[in-house]
Design a protein that fits this description.
By secondary structure, the chain is mostly helical. Helix content is 53%, strand content 0%.
């Protein structure tokens, strides 16, 4: 499956993580790919040159990334940014119509409360 991390072939959950903060993950992955492609083209590099420089086995790996068909680890995005002479923030995909930091923190607080309730019930002293 192309949309997964190389260590997690079946689902995102099989690695214990999901990229579901806003429900627009696929669109954001495609936007990141477009931003990476535009940055590569701006420095006049081919996909093959980028693949060889950054240690990918084949040019097709860069194509998959640029089409949003593959999840990237943060360190990979940093590598692209460094090669292209860009700041990491140049590849941000969060938009104004997505949850704010405060909304995400409120969601996290609710999730933390639920997790703590479960843990307290599960680990009750016997």
């Amino acid at each position: 499956m192309l949309g997964t991390n190389s260590r997690c072939r079946l689902t995102h959950d099989s690695c214990g993580f999901r990229d579901a903060a806003d429900g627009n993950e696929q669109a954001r992955r495609k936007r990141l790919g477009r931003l990476l492609r535009e940055a590569r083209q701006a420095v006049d590099l081919t996909q093959a040159a980028v693949a060889r420089t950054l240690g990918y086995r084949q040019q097709i790996n860069i194509s998959h990334i640029e089409h949003g068909a593959r999840l990237l680890e943060l360190i990979e995005v940093e590598n692209f940014a460094h090669l292209y002479g860009r700041a990491l923030s140049d590849f941000a995909t969060w938009r104004d119509d997505q949850p704010t930091t405060e909304e995400l923190r409120q969601r996290a607080a609710r999730n933390q409360e639920e997790a703590l309730k479960f843990q307290r019930a599960y680990y009750k002293p016997r």
